[in-house]
Amino acid sequence: MLRTIVVGSCVSVQGTFENQLENGKIVVRVGDRLFAGKPVLRKSAA
Question: Which domain of life is it from (predicted)?
């Protein structure tokens, strides 16, 4: 499943969901690299 995270104040990364950390951040994989950051909340369809 693709997920988008925010890394820093202006950088977002989209990759394959790997796992969720205890502090609420999630880890995504882009190629052979892993990135951790705050998840971007999805908007629900009205």
Answer: Bacteria
